[in-house]
Design brief:
The structure is a homodimer.
Chain A (H helix, E strand, L loop, with lengths): L12 H16 L9 H8 L3 H13 L3 E4 L3 E4 L4 E6 L13 E9 L3 H7 L7 E10 L2 E11 L18 H11 L6 E10 L2 H7 L6 E11 L2 E11 L3 E6 L16
Parallel strand pairs in A: 3-10
Antiparallel strand pairs in A: 1-2, 4-5, 5-6, 6-9, 7-8, 8-9
Helix pairs in contact in A: 1-3, 2-3
The first copy, chain A, binds a DNA duplex through helix 3.
DNA sequence: TAGTGGTCTAGACCACCCG
DNA sequence: GGGTGGTCTAGACCACTAA
């Protein structure tokens, strides 16, 4: 009737809530500080807990908050820049590598990876597990798939299916260095953490992750494929010339 | 030892549900097919609608499903590869550019961008809006910030604050080409769509997006900053410097 | 053991799309 | 108008952490 609908698009409560909280985080909280618990916050804003949680979830997705079961909700530090690609092509396991080998198995890869490698569906490949830590926090878990054909010089393990240790992982990486790397290829997409990755990343299963898929080319073929999952809440992936520092150094030595 | 704790971690219902649905999508549905509605699905699985929705949300986040209000839930096609970075550094607006200029304003940028540009908090910069369409779908929205100092030759518009059209956007881009690009710098992180971007991307506000921030260096300074938000559900960002041509599993999904 | 976030329920109403 | 997904409520219980 006479009710003039000023807000043609009524803003959802959780959206407005997110805005209010976001501003409060900027002005009234400092990094690491713990927020009131969800039940109190919901009461304070006069909404149901589920509605409040919808706002908190978004803020966590944006890296503004960190929530841990049994502990509480804290203000997250700014995302850390994680260098994920340099201009030069280098094999995994090179000297300055940020990854730490954790294990190695020999098994058929997922179908998607087999497609990239050009191997048969059930063909066994070396599968190296690595993890990456930055600023004292686990930031990424990786699976590196290397077809046996890429490493003819690597001796086969006595029991191919036995889960092997970091020693064998290092052997595979060492063997890779002997190949001439001709190029590489990267893709980034959003995913959710599988159970194994979640444990390694100290997150719950299903947590949002940035999946970086890299193909390594050598001898005219795809010689290896890396699938690395980065914590999307804490990481900003940096590519390119300067490694994400604020002030660029003004030299021209890396300009092509 | 003797206590065989088979299920040490009881799987949440929504997680199990997601697995079941995911397998069903692979085996029993084809791309574009519409699923039963949420109320029916929930009843069929014997869970509350909210629980079912939690599973659907994850599947949508992973790009397996597409949900549209008033329409229904459909099986999404595989994510399209969107080329986002080449080895060569090129200014926005170069010949083969995938972006379409939409408008241009002159206003102070967000604080984060001002920090990257090294401009004062309230300094006005040229702000070019562009959008990117791929395979008939909007995939990204961009804001390109160019300090006035970077383009001394560009005449100022008569009314600096007036929202200008695509013509002025093109003028700014054309002016950029005259600068010598010395390098660039990219970062990718997860974000959620702001209201303006959401409208342009045909998504709801808050939808997950991949935010690509690019700094362009010229004359020893940061000459421009681009903030591009890509739909995370439909896009796989590719950073190609592959030495060869791609072979994928049947479908040609690369887009330059 | 007390307190936190995580999961789940069974409803309700709303905004949107289409025939 | 009828059906869809999106929002919201007011509860309940569970899993985890720390004192």
């Amino acid at each position: 009737m006479g009710t003039t609908q000023l807000e043609t698009v009524p803003e959802p409560k959780y959206w407005h809530l997110k805005t209010v909280l976001s501003e409060a985080l900027d002005s009234e909280f400092s990094v690491g500080e713990i927020l009131p618990n969800e039940r109190d916050l919901a009461a304070r804003f006069g909404v149901a807990r589920a509605t409040l949680r919808q706002a908190l979830e978004q803020l966590e997705l944006e890296g503004r908050l960190q929530r841990r079961r049994g502990v509480g909700t804290t203000v997250a530090p700014p995302r850390m820049g994680v260098a994920v690609g340099s201009e030069e092509h280098v094999w995994p396991g090179a000297a300055d590598d940020a990854w730490q080998p954790a294990g190695c198995a020999t098994a058929p890869p997922p179908n998607a990876v087999a497609g990239l490698l050009g191997t048969a569906r059930d063909e066994q490949v070396h599968t190296v597990r690595r993890s990456r830590v930055s600023q004292g926090q686990p930031v990424a878990a990786e699976l590196l798939y290397v077809p046996r054909a890429s490493l003819p010089a690597l001796p086969e393990p006595p029991f191919p299916d036995a889960p092997s240790g970091a020693a064998r992982a290092r052997a595979v990486l060492r063997e890779l260095q002997h190949l001439g790397l001709e190029g590489q290829d990267r893709a980034v997409e959003l995913g959710s953490a599988r159970v194994e990755d979640a444990r390694e990343l100290d997150r719950l299963p299903g947590a949002p992750v940035l999946v970086v898929t890299t193909r390594f080319f050598a001898e005219g073929r795809t010689a290896a494929v890396s699938v690395a999952t980065y914590r999307a809440d804490t990481c900003r992936l940096t590519f390119g010339d300067s490694g994400g520092v604020e002030i660029h150094h003004g030299t021209e030595d890396e300009v092509s």
